[in-house]
Amino acid sequence: MDHTQRNGKPKILITEDDLENQKFLKLILRKNFEVDVCDSATTFFQKLSENHYDGILMDVSLNGERSGVEIVRELKKHPTYKNIPVVCLSAHVFSQVQREALDAGVDAYLTKPVQNHELIDTLTKLVNGEAGS
């Protein structure tokens, strides 16, 4: 299966409920990735069922009934999706939140604000099957 779009860029799904953060992430990532955006667990699983993604960028705090950590936990239990790399991007700097995310199956955990190059490098390495950061 071809894991990239026609333009050769890996396709990622950004799960972020803040509109300004969505715009910013799309702007900095669109040069390196084909980007889709969703804002909740409901829209996440809908997009996932309709598209193939090479990676996921997940916020921890989301509007709605499930957190990003809960979504990742559910994702990693699903045979079809469990191997999609997930980068968590969160304003939560507390080690407990980071530990919960990593225990849920997140491949990398970055805190906001993050340097653009660090985010791009982390996503690139993970979608290319290289070790996480």
Structure report:
- Helix content is 40%, strand content 17%.
- Strands 2-1-3-4-5 form a 5-stranded parallel sheet, sandwiched between helices.
- The longest helix is centred in the C-terminal third of the chain and has 12 residues, at 116-127.
- By secondary structure, the chain is an alpha/beta fold.
- Helix 1 links the parallel strand 1 and strand 2.
Kindly estimate the percentage of residues that lie in beta strands according to DSSP.
Answer: 15-25%
Number of helices: 5
Helix proportion: 25-40%
Characterize the largest beta sheet: strand count, sense, and whether it forms a barrel: 5 strands, parallel
- Mean pLDDT, to the nearest integer, reads 91
Element pattern in H and E:
EHEHEHEHEH
How far is the N terminus from the C terminus? Answer: 27 Å
Give the CATH architecture: 3-Layer(aba) Sandwich
* CATH homologous superfamily identity: Response regulator
What's the Cα radius of gyration? 13 Å
Classified by CATH, the class is Alpha Beta
How many β-strands, per DSSP?
5
